[in-house]
Request: fold
Amino acid sequence: MWSERRIERAADGTYVLRLPEEERALLRFLPGDLRALLDAAPDDPGLRRLFPRAYEDEQDEAAYRELMGNELLDERRRALEVLAETATAERLTDGQAHAWLTALNDLRLVLGTRLEVSDESLLEDLVESDPRAPELALYAYLSWLQEQLVAALSSDL
Reply:
């Protein structure tokens, strides 16, 4: 797919971003869409993978949602905010890089849920005439960028 490393760990522990302006613009824009969805429709079916059930028992699940629901939502909002605010940065701190990882994963999960992406159906059979082609390409890009970030985060292990 893409060959150049876009994210690498620097000797000082920061993460160097080598993103073209078009990718930076996309990463500034996308978090706003997901944040708006989280704010307006937290029960949207597209969000179900972001908030999987913690308990089988309905009462336990309801108690968990009441206790943790807002905190989980706030963490996702903060990660999306960090991604949007630092998309133009040349370097990320460790905390910012982890926020990016959360935000990229959340964007992928929501998009993948809406597109009904499965391991078997990702891009192998994609044709340009497929009406989902732009969204599937975006999903592939976010997956690739997340992979780049995971490699950078784990480079010192």
Q: What stands out?
A: The chain has one domain: 7-153. The first helix runs from residue 21 to 40. The beta strands are 7-9, 15-17, 91-92.
